[in-house]
Amino acid sequence: MRVLQINSVCGVGSTGRIMLQIHNTLKEKGHESYIAYGRKPVRNCEEAIRIGNDLDVYFHVLLTRMFDLHGFGSKKATKEFVKTVEKINPDIIHLHNIHGYYLHIEVLFDFLKRYDKPVVWTLHDCWAFTGHCAYFLYARCDKWKTGCYSCPEKKAYPKSVFLDNSKSNYQRKRKIFTGVRNMTLVTPSQWLAGLVKESFLAEYPVKVIPNGVDVSIFKPTPSDFRKRFGLANKFVILGVANVWDRRKGFDYFLELSKYLSDDEVIVLVGVSDKQIKMLPRNVIGIKRTSLAKELAEIYTAADVFFNPTLEDNYPTVNLEAQACGTYVITFDSGGSSETIVSEKSGMAIKPCSAKYILDLVKSLKSIGTKGVIIESSMRSVISHQFMVNSYIGLYEELYCEGNEKVVGV
């Protein structure tokens, strides 16, 4: 098979790592594999195709901020990319995040409809079937079911400062994204699959393939992390995110810090310079790390992992923490509860007060969290190889079906 994957980033972030893992495995199995991305930074993606350039991204951001036209910039860059795709002539095209300031969705989907070969589209969030936002749980909005307007999340990603173009965006996206003859949607969670079936994308088959983690890296990994940060006798509550915002529950950690004892401390990974300056003394801020082994060391050093996400699809950080032997408390929002592999490895709770969370943390502290997760629970975390093989199995199924139609079998 000749497979092309497209994503906003390559080798970084959960989606960028997933694309690269599939790419590497395809090549190991003797298939032809191509990957394309739109934005920096990149890691281990020397063979990847860049769609457009930094200037294209900046103009797309400006178009989004001014006119709420995310997905309708980068027209020239997308047309040039389509020419490249035609030269590659892939048997399967796999879309990941096509939002992210780098693609013109109308140009891309006009080509896909003409090309008429199997398309796999992994939805990592809800952007594909809304007029603006990637998530709507926080706003408690269900306009996406019938038609968006007066978007309550206009200033959330992809942020628009001035106009609300959600009504027109919704109508255009419904026309653009429907009518692809051979497209299969994939979601990492049953939760998102259920939403898709209520949206204008309901015409397509939906397959659930949960995200996996590299269990050869994310495993109990001793280190000197506690010594370096002066945490030798501390009970460590850990939080990890690519970007800490209201959706990820940053404010919950600030509130929780007010009630901690002297021997308890919070460690937040992924905070910005601005956020580090506002952290209280009992919260240690660490900038984002793209080194998986370093992250595994931090997970292992923690006593409990807390993920107060208010909107999420299938948070990989929960899986990574459990694979490293660290107990997880996560809010039951979106598909988060589906990431808890065993009652021995974590719990999903409704969003609640910091004091209630502290009571849970105290109970775990009293029994000793490192003895809570049993080895079988750690092994139950879905490996990235299982995930990758599931995708390749889907490719092979679609490829064989396509060949049967060609030869008239």
How many structural units, i.e. domains?
Answer: 2
Low-pLDDT stretches are: none
What proportion of the residues form beta strands (DSSP E)? 5-15%
- The residue fraction in helices comes out at 25-40%
Name the overall outline. globular
Order of helices and strands: EHEEHHEHEHEHEHEHEHEHEHEEHHH
β-strand number: 13
- Overall structural class, as computed from helix and strand content, comes to alpha/beta
CATH architecture of the largest domain: 3-Layer(aba) Sandwich
According to CATH, the fold-level topology of the largest domain is Rossmann fold
At the first level of CATH, the class of the largest domain is Alpha Beta
What's the main sheet like?
A: 7 strands, parallel
Q: Give the termini distance in whole angstroms.
A: 19 Å
Task: Round the mean pLDDT to the nearest integer and report it.
Answer: 93
Tally of alpha and pi helices? 14
* Rg measurement, Å: 22 Å
CATH H-level name of the largest domain... which superfamily?
Glycogen Phosphorylase B
**Main sheet: which strands, in order across?**
3-2-1-4-5-6-7
Protein name: Glycosyltransferase
GO molecular function, one term: glycosyltransferase activity
Organism: Fervidobacterium pennivorans (strain DSM 9078 / Ven5)
Pfam families: Glyco_transf_4, Glycos_transf_1
